[in-house]
Amino acid sequence: MTTQQSAPPAARPGRRSALRPLAGRAPAPLAPARVTALHSGGVAAAALLLLVGAGALLREPVLIPPIAASAAIVYGVPALPLAQPRSVVAGHLLCAAVGYLALGLFGPAPWVAALGAGVAVGVMTLARTPHSPAAASTVVVVLQAPDPVWFVPLLAGAAAVLVLAGTLSSRLRPKAVRYPVYWW
Hints:
The chain has 184 residues and is mainly α. It has helices at residues 15-19, 34-58, 65-76, 85-106, 110-127, 132-144, 148-172.
């Protein structure tokens, strides 16, 4: 007696053919070891908590959404060009500069934030500092108009903390991906 098994979902007619034009050709990456995921999450939490503590001492917000997104890249995929110190630090600073320029020229408005973020992506591309969370720094600057005297050093410091924590954590765990791959 033979048993018939149903085909896996990807091989069923209709589903596969309908999604094929939308899919890439490479398979999804393999899941990392649990210890790697715990290490990445633990270092991210520790670095972000350090920024919260610094913000409490300074009575200024140091943990902003773009920095949390940067932590996800630095600790989650440390070998990518987006995670390297040049991209993390310079990307945020360039995007903040674009944000202040857009704010000065056009004022605080959602359309200015959107235009500024798009220009910031182009500037990062030209400067060879790709870091997608940094584009959100442009949006923060345009929509919240923080005082640059405080905001820019705090942004640079927060980005530097992420880089230093990533560097230290990769040295403390022998089997971790070496971070950074390059500094500048």
